[in-house]
Design goal:
alpha/beta; Rossmann fold; 5 helices; about 35% helix; about 30% strand; globular
């Protein structure tokens, strides 16, 4: 006799925590003269006043890129002290044959008040083609997340929106 399928309580919990989170890309710009090239290695840099925010943003984006099959390194994984220096980033990108550098900078984060105001995060992002376009961005945009349950959740929503936007703009290509 066939028994009806029932979703597990764990699966329902995961869906409840993640299904309401919403991500969005706005103010998206792509350099019209940029010639897409295959990307294998990506270097992720978050410019944030707090180390934990830097780690959260960089790790969330690294996980999203790794899930798509890209090789990823993060600035927080290389340098543990002080602000990230643009000269160090360029030198590392050149030395390690990085194809794309993505810089994230949070501009707003509010965890909201449960049941009253939604959690909101905004992150400005820029992508630089490390080889031929190291000095000027080839893509920029503002990513936002709403209705997430933690800062880590916000990072994951922003990262997913960022990766999709870069793929759609043909900046992040295989």
């Amino acid at each position: 006799m066939n028994r009806p399928l029932r979703p597990s309580p764990f699966l329902l919990g995961v869906l409840a925590l993640t299904s309401c989170a919403v991500g969005h890309a706005s103010n998206v710009w792509r350099d019209p003269s940029y010639q897409p090239a295959p990307v294998r290695r990506v270097f992720v840099v978050a410019v944030a006043p707090e180390r934990q925010d830097q780690l959260g943003l960089e790790n969330a984006l690294a996980e999203a890129l790794l899930a798509r099959g890209f090789e990823v390194a993060t600035a927080a994984g290389l340098w543990t002290e002080g602000p990230v220096d643009q000269g160090k980033v360029k030198a590392y990108a050149k030395e390690m044959n990085v194809d794309l550098v993505v810089v994230e900078q949070p501009t707003f984060l509010s965890l909201g008040e449960a049941g009253v105001t939604p959690a909101v995060a905004k992150v400005d992002a820029r992508a630089y083609g490390a080889g031929r376009y190291p000095d000027a961005p080839v893509w920029s945009g503002t990513l936002s997340a709403r209705n997430f349950v933690s800062v880590k959740g916000a990072g994951a929503v922003v990262a997913a929106s960022l990766v999709e936007s870069l793929i759609e703009a043909k900046v992040l290509v295989r």
